[in-house]
Amino acid sequence: FVDYFLIAGVGDSLHALRTSDQGFTDPFEVAFQGRVIDRYPLENYPEAHLPPHVWMFCFPKGLELRRQQSEPSFFVFALTELDGARFYGASLICYEPLPEHVIATLGETKPDVAVALRKASPLAPLAFCILSHFPFFSVFKEYLKEMYLQLHTECTVPVERLISMMVCDVPLLPQGGISLELPIGSKIVSCSRPASFQFPIADFGSMRFLFDALGVYNAVLLFGCVLNEFKIVFVSSQPSLLTMACETIVALMYPFLWHHVYIPMLPASLVDFLQAPTPFIVGMHTSYSPPSPIAIPEIMMVNLDSGQLELPEKPQMPAKETAELISKLKKILYPDLMTLDIVFVDEPHRTNAKNVEEEKKNLDVEIRLAFLEFFVNLMMPYSKYVSFLRKFPKSIAIFNKAAFLKERPDAVGFLSKLLETQAFAFFLENHHTEGRNIFDDAILFKKAKRDLHELPNLKSTVEKIYSMPDPDRLCLRQDVYHYDVAKYPILHEDWYPKSRKRAKLPNWDFQVEDTKLIELQYEFS
């Protein structure tokens, strides 16, 4: 569920992030290097090492001192490992007094700067960060909020026990069937993983933000660039918006996946990465983003603050399907705008929402269905052009591209490029080995002229609930615990439980019975 918890902040001394700033005289005008101050567990897992320089992603602009206090902020990020796996991070940033020993160390080389800094009562950022291979961002946010509150007030159970429970005791859920209930402070937070025949997990906020930032037409144009595997740079002054936009656009690629470099929040110290020869999707804060127009001509710039796109070339898109997609998205996102001149208005398809959060989820499903239908209309006959050189021990599929393109002469330009992408190659290699899925079932529905909203894949599969107990209090000798966040390390080694091993997964004794999809297979095959 969670791989690592860490706290990142200023090191034992202030080292400027950029070599050109080493001779600084005003520490409030310079970005500094950070480091990991505390972490749990202390040792790396053999199968998932803590990424080096992870503090860069906690402080993408570098570590900046402030004179005045500000409200805590939260943002999420993702980074790609060497094997292609993604680490997802959730980070809560707050500002605390700069530790005295850091100012004293600075005084050894810059005594005048240290004296002035001490008088200014500087505040340094602290990042409380969760790392996981699964993007349960809404749950991680609740965990971090509770930790922040406990670190700044007296608590009856130390934060170390909450951290240990999160990393060691909370099990990874199976795909579908089980909902996990987690006690976080006074709240009970629920989460679950979708079944393999449903849309992949997308827990990063509302997909609507991307369309509100860019507009429907520009968002669809961006979608075409992603499918054509452009080099894409997102720019915004809001770190959370960068990750939401990147996560949204790659989620809407389903049934295809983005297999190139993916860094929704690229640290300032890694901007040279934009010279990479391969496709990428990266996000950058406006304070260190490339100038406009960008000096690297083959890069597409997506400004989420202004809603403007800078394109090296316009992507080829299938005219009919693109027009239908834009029309559907406008009806989903702005239904009142689309019906201003109509007397008798048909209500748009909506499931009954009990609250605002459920309404957001319903809207996301509507958006995902619109893009799914785009691919269904475009790729409907694809399966009859797939053949196999072998199926065991590992299937090797081949695709008759020429014959498939003859079925869609009106979209040859777009499809011929799509069929050459790494996304399609991976789709062809893995799609037929993963069992039933929502894409193929949507094709069956479309052939039967049925509404995709009726897909059983959209219904909840949760039939059992697993409730986590509260953090244990074994061997605790105090009634109240408090912390000094201005002294490092902040956390206490002896307040963790003695057992540091990850708990074995429960015997769920559960399998999602996909009876409705089996009925579909018989009905339409």
Concise description?
The chain has 525 residues and is α/β, with parallel strands linked by helices. The protein has helices at 55-58, 100-107, 111-119, 137-151, 159-169, 208-214, 216-227, 239-251, 319-333, 335-338, 356-379, 401-407, 412-418, 422-430, 438-447, 515-524; strands at 4-10, 34-40, 73-80, 86-97, 123-132, 178-184, 187-191, 231-236, 261-263, 280-285, 299-303, 308-310, 386-390, 396-399, 464-467. A hairpin with a 4-residue loop joins β11 and β12 (308-310).
Please render the helix and strand layout as text.
Elements: E1 4-10, E2 34-40, H1 55-58, E3 73-80, E4 86-97, H2 100-107, H3 111-119, E5 123-132, H4 137-151, H5 159-169, E6 178-184, E7 187-191, H6 208-214, H7 216-227, E8 231-236, H8 239-251, E9 261-263, E10 280-285, E11 299-303, E12 308-310, H9 319-333, H10 335-338, H11 356-379, E13 386-390, E14 396-399, H12 401-407, H13 412-418, H14 422-430, H15 438-447, E15 464-467, H16 515-524
Parallel strand pairs: 6-15, 8-10, 8-11, 9-10
Antiparallel strand pairs: 1-2, 1-5, 3-4, 4-5, 6-7, 11-12, 13-14
Helix pairs in contact: 2-3, 6-7, 9-11, 11-15, 15-16
Keywords summarizing the entry:
single chain; 525 residues; alpha/beta; 5-stranded antiparallel sheet; 5-stranded mixed sheet; 16 helices; globular
Q: What does this entry look like structurally?
A:
The chain has helices at 55-58, 100-107, 111-119, 137-151, 159-169, 208-214, 216-227, 239-251, 319-333, 335-338, 356-379, 401-407, 412-418, 422-430, 438-447, 515-524; strands spanning 4-10, 34-40, 73-80, 86-97, 123-132, 178-184, 187-191, 231-236, 261-263, 280-285, 299-303, 308-310, 386-390, 396-399, 464-467. By secondary structure, it is α/β, with parallel strands linked by helices. Helix 6 (208-214) crosses helix 7, helix 9 (319-333) runs antiparallel to helix 11 and helix 15 crosses helix 16. The model is unreliable at 513-525 (pLDDT under 50).
